[in-house]
Automatic annotation (TrEMBL):
InterPro entries: FAR_NAD-bd, Lipid_A_modif_metabolic_enz, NAD(P)-bd_dom_sf. Gene3D superfamilies: NAD(P)-binding Rossmann-like Domain. It holds the Pfam family NAD_binding_4. Residues 47-216 form the Thioester reductase (TE) domain. It comes from the Bacteria. This is SDR family oxidoreductase.
Length: 336
């Protein structure tokens, strides 16, 4: 029997990394979890401490060589994911760090599966609208776009997964950390939103993190080494009213009162309506407006590879509103 493929997983301590580890089948894949400093409770092997901003991933020459001799595949999930930072903060990790991963993969003769973002759609040539330079997500997205480009010109066998905003596990809502969708939802549920800025026609496209993890693990198992996949629902995704209905149902289930805030057209909204608010309200409203703008610049309805992900990688058909409701229930009980 041939040995299972050996996979180096960067970002193993992150939301995506930990979801990938939950999908591993040790008889089919051996995953070496790599992270900078945070714990990785799902790891079946000792965690390799590496830093993408350092030469040879921060490893000594012998360890680096030995690792390259072992590894067949890299799942590159490490990155700086916080929004709203200057471009020079993203470059060392997301761009130069990906260059380090490419150099490693070239030495190892490994295929790379790169976790990019759906949001690169907003910066692609032919995007239906121009993203404002001050959009809170822009520098992050641009760093992911540059990383994709490095991979494209590297000549290495690789795939690119472009997930939209992720939520908890489809069946249980589990997540290692609350993310933007849970934080925004909580803020809305607490009745803090004076209004919701909405770009006309956009969908609320959230994907359960295990669907991404299943697809990536399956791509590795199948030995796939090309393609770029939009991990999103596209036209199947709920609209804004549908999203508010899920929130209202959740509130009723946990005995809370929820009055959906009014929707206002983000295109005609006076910026002062946001700027004059207290800092917390301003921050939440700005994120809502800017994420909506990214969606609008990506076409309003996001590009999707969901049919292909289901047929080739066998990811289950999951109703997005059901997964969102499950995620809310988990967050209410476990994320505080
Ligand atoms: N989660 C989402 O909703 C989502 C959506 C679209 C795309 N993505 C993409 O998917 C990937 C994973 O996202 P995530 O949500 O799992 O991110 P995350 O939870 O923020 O985790 C980031 C990971 O990167 C590692 N890391 C950060 N800086 C590093 C460095 N200098 N050297 C080595 N490792 C470093 C972190 O390690 P430590 O914890 O040890 O510091 C952590 O494991 C990202 O590239 C992101 O762009 C995520």
């Amino acid at each position: 029997m041939s040995r299972p493929r050996t996979v180096l997983l960067t970002g193993a301590s992150g939301v995506v990394g930990r979801a990938v580890l939950r999908e591993q089948h040790p008889d089919r894949l051996r995953i070496i979890p790599a992270a900078r400093s945070a714990p990785v409770p799902e790891a079946a092997e000792p965690v390799l401490r590496c830093d993408l901003t350092r030469e040879r991933l921060g490893l000594d020459p012998d360890s680096y060589r030995a690792l390259a001799a072992e590894v067949d595949v890299v799942i590159h999930s490490a990155g700086l994911t916080e929004w709203g930072l200057p471009a020079e903060r993203y470059r060392p990790v997301n761009v130069d760090g990906t260059r380090q991963v490419i150099d490693f993969a070239a030495q190892a003769g490994a295929t790379v599966h790169f976790m990019s973002t759906e949001f690169v759609a907003a910066l692609l040539p032919g995007a239906p609208a121009q993203l404002r330079s001050e959009n809170i997500c822009r520098n992050y997205i641009d760093s992911k776009r540059q990383a994709e480009e490095l991979l494209r010109v590297s000549g290495l066998p690789h795939t690119v997964f472009r997930p939209t905003n992720l939520i908890g596990d489809a069946a249980t809502g589990w997540t290692s950390r609350g993310q933007i969708v849970q934080q925004m939802s909580d803020w809305l549920l607490r009745g803090r939103a004076p209004f919701v800025p909405v770009h006309p026609g956009i969908r609320m496209d959230f994907v359960a993190q295990d669907l991404l993890a299943k697809a990536v693990v399956r791509a590795v198992e199948l030995g796939d080494d090309e393609g770029a996949f939009w991990v999103s629902y596209g036209p199947e995704a709920m609209d804004v009213e549908g999203c508010l209905r899920v929130l209202a149902k959740h509130a009723a289930a946990v005995g809370r009162t929820f009055t959906p805030p009014p929707l206002v057209d983000a295109d005609t909204l006076d910026p002062d309506e946001i700027d004059r608010r207290d800092p917390m309200t301003r921050a939440y409203l700005s994120v809502l407006r800017d994420v909506g703008e990214v969606t609008r610049c990506s076409g309003g309805v996001l590009p999707t590879s969901m049919p292909m992900l289901r047929s080739r990688y066998g990811i289950p058909v999951v109703d997005d509103t059901a997964a969102y409701a499950t995620s809310l229930a988990y967050a209410a009980e476990h994320l505080g």
